Amino acid sequence: MSAFQLEKHGHLAVLTLNSAEKRNLLTPHSALAIAEAVQQLPLDPNIKALAVTGRDDSFCSGADLASLQQAALGDGEELQQIYSAFTSVAHSPLLTIALLNGPALGAGMNLAMACDIRLASEQAWFESRFFQLAIHPGGGHSWLLPQLVGWQQAAAMIFCGERLSAQQALAAGFVKELWPEDQLLTRAKQLTAGLASLPTELVRQTKLSMLALRSCYRQDDAVAFEFRQQFQSLQQEAAQQHIAARLAQIKRKD
After folding, report:
1. In angstroms, rounded to a whole number, what is the distance separating the alpha carbons of residues 82 and 66?
2. Which of 2, 25, 155, 229 is 20 to 30 A from 216 via CA?
């Protein structure tokens, strides 16, 4: 059985972790396969967004423990391979949405946090889990989590093993919205519907700009960076058409 299933719904690709009998664990092999698939998606000019979810009642229960044991015996290559699943999502030029149908633990949280938007069902919950295994957090976990839930909540989860329920995750800003599990994909389609009429290059360049500006500390630098991108987009036919249509709409109202 494949480690994941990939479907395309117009401009939205949906990647479903497919090892439900193991609660969608990540192994070095499955993570590399996921990373390759994610990296190949931009080759399709129609794809503008990616949704990631899990089969059955789990999103992703983390890294395979046997693989972690094996990683300790080598040079860490297996660990880096597991990281590749969520780093490929984090670096993607596509808008990425986690559809959190169930629990996300450890590396599974990393996969969720790698996405731009997180939608969850009431059955979802979140645990750091690294200290339960007496290992240091990995994959950027201790960098991302405080950004999303604040330092205090992140510390409680990492050091004290505190679990975040779906409702708590919503209140903390870890997830954007809660939906019934069978409506998560529908909601993702609704959120991305507006991308259909936009140029693929515009969507992807804007995502890459957001990633680049995460390391920008001065507003003036951000303004200069965005000036180049915005000016270029204004020169494109799509922008001229959209602006003309908007002006015509305003004129009719007047």
Report:
1. 12
2. 155
Q: Which two tokens stand for residue 40?
A: 């190949």
Tokens of 140: 């950027």
Q: Of 207, 189, 185, nearest to 53 (Cα)?
A: 185
CB 6 within 8 A of CB 35: no
Domain ranges of the chain: 4-195, 197-253
Please list, in sequence order, all residues whose beta carbon lies within 8 angstroms of the beta carbon of residue 90, skipping any fewer than 6 positions away: 114, 140
The residues near 228 (Cβ < 8 Å, ≥ 6 apart) are none
* In this structure, CATH architecture of domain 4-195: Alpha-Beta Complex (3.90)
Enter the pTM of the model: 0.95
How far from 3 is each of 7, 25, 84, 149, CA to CA, in Å? 14, 9, 14, 30
